[in-house]
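Sequence only, no structure available. Ideas?
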Amino acid sequence: MRKISPLEHLETNTLDHLEWHAILPYYACQAQTGPGRQRLLTPQPQTAQALRERAPILKTWLDRVSGQGPLRIPDLRDAKWFERDPFQNPFSAEDLSLVGKFLVFMIDHLETNQFAFLPEAPKPEPSHLRLRDHLKILFEPNGDWSPLASPKLGQLLNTLRHLESQIERNLQSHLERHGDILSESIVYERNGRKCLAVKTDFKGRIRGIVQDSSASGKTVFLEPESVLGPQNEWAETQAAIREEIWRIRCETTQSILDPQLEIVAWMACCARWDAEQTLALVAHQTGSHFLIPEGKDLHLIRARHPYLDEKFAALRQRASQSEGLDAHHMVPFSLRLDDQVRGLVLSGANTGGKTVCLKTTGLLAQLARCGLPVPCEEGSQIPYYRYILADIGDHQSLTMSLSTFASHLEYLKAILAADDPATLVLLDELGSGTDPEEGSALARALIETMLQRDYQFLVTTHMQVLCTFALTHPHLDNGSMVFDERALRPTYQFAQGVPGRSHALEIARRSGLDESVLTRAQELISANLVDIQAAIRELQERSRSMEKAQRKLRKEEIRLHRKIQETKAETRKLESARQQVQQEAQSKIRKEVERAEMRLRTFLEETKAKSLRKQAGLEFAKLSQDLVPETHAVQKVEIQASGTPLDAWQKGDLLYYLAWGKTAKLVRLDRKKVHIEIEGKQLIVEASDVLHQHSGQKEKPVRTESEFEPQMAQIQLRLLGMTVEEAIADLEVTLDRVLRSGQPYLEIIHGHGTGALKQAIRTYLKRHPVREQWQVEIDPGNDGITQLRFV
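Reply:
I predicted one. Tokens follow.
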């Protein structure tokens, strides 16, 4: 047996520390098949490349379960089930029925391209179709063997039914004729033979064979002589049926086990799809996300532990088969490590949630590298870690003669043996179990070594010297669990950037410890420690003040921006009113021109002389120009003849038709007749009725405000009460306006509800083609609002 290295031993123990196997049933309990459930109970870390390649497939599963619900998958079996000799251990009728249902499911869905998004989806061959059709005719709806299974079986079953009918009629005749000598007027079965219950004293009245007798001896079970032959034939037929069924089972089993059909591989694919669909269902139900390992940033947004998260309560109930939902509750937390800040030192009071924060971070990293959905908000990132190593708890061992400190040293040696930058280290109570001064020195040296090796790590401690070290080191950051100093109880809220205090004396005072002891303890605290605690309190107060100032500043920015938008809106209203007045004036002028045009057309029709007609056309053009005032909105058109001789006119030239006062296109010349095209009609006019122009002068369109121009952008979008489709449509229009208007904020109000609308909106924002133009900001105190800050 291969010896397990200390690093491998630590990896195994890390999963125990993170309670990995305890949460896997939450992810597996909704699997529909045994193999699919087993895959989810024993997930293995995948490579970064495999996770990236599978990400689009998991997204498609998520979209399907969100929109259509889960696909119903028939039961499956694993590869070991297929390891058999078809002629010694053929599949039972139940087994064959299972394979038949599986093939019907697979072929139906493959032929309708419902698995087209899966690259490993097999292609049904004619041999698969033949096997499916064969399995479909083996059984009746009630599960009995069908006469269609084989011609011989059909004939035997027909013979059997005929014999059973004959035997039944014969025995019924005896019941009617000999009712007075029977103990009961019913047919019994003894030794596989149908018999009559005859009183012992009258058994000689019916010729036959006694098969059995009652315990009292008052009744014998007699097989009448008249049914001996039919029952013998019935038994022979039953034997023949069993033999034929055995043959069918052997041959069908042999067909199923044919390597060319790859039924085992098909079931393995389906088990994988069942597992992936189940994971997508968990993600949909709990607001979790499939994270693609990219970069080196560990950025958790509102991270939650599946054992404590309320959204996992129904899954915990189902996995444990308990009667009611548990009352577990967790305050989500957010933290960030990157190339600059690679280590986080967590401090604060006992029972404040430091270890929960530590375990949750490690557990979520393990979920991500195994391809399981991570309970956190969209926008979170987790790098790909080749090693996730944790030293949590007291590992004192009497059997191995290990003290607490010695057991920690064993773990620390294994951690340093990893020597891989893609490593996440989680250390609880670093430096404890030995002399505080030496322990803190060892802890600092270990932190420096992990920084040199580019590890990312979280450590918890009560040592203020480590908090001070983190304050001054450029690659370290402090973190603390916020403590309510007035109520002297933890809030379980995580704050990054600020160290925490243990509050040991305050908690002891609240618990009722003798005041003299507390007074003496206060006196014994060194001046340096007092200074450190005072600095921590000041940092915490500054942090709270900065948060309040930032919230106040953001509100003021939003108020000012709203005021600017309102001013712009008022300006647009005035401009719209001005344009409306201008358009009404233009409309009035056009109507006057049209009336004058009609009068002049009538005049021209009545005028016969060509010279007068031409002069009238010129007068009309002049009159039209006089009627239209000089304005930027109504364009003037000067009618100037090009002077080109008639014989030089060419097809396509632009002409001015005097009678209509409109531009026409030359189609062709026919002596003195001119064929023109005007307003989709072709006319034949005199050459004197038109003026030749070098080129048509197209009227410039009057510019009006388009619906695609920036409108007044909304600073707040309310989507409460809408369906997902309605909300996404409104959001799409609003984003378009906001991006063109240049406003810095948009506040999207979607509420909490079931979380479906919130999830759909945040997913849409994450996958939007121009998502790099904004940053999603979520207020931990109000998860019913999503804010966008445009960059």
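The chain has a mean pLDDT of 83.
Hope that gets you unstuck.
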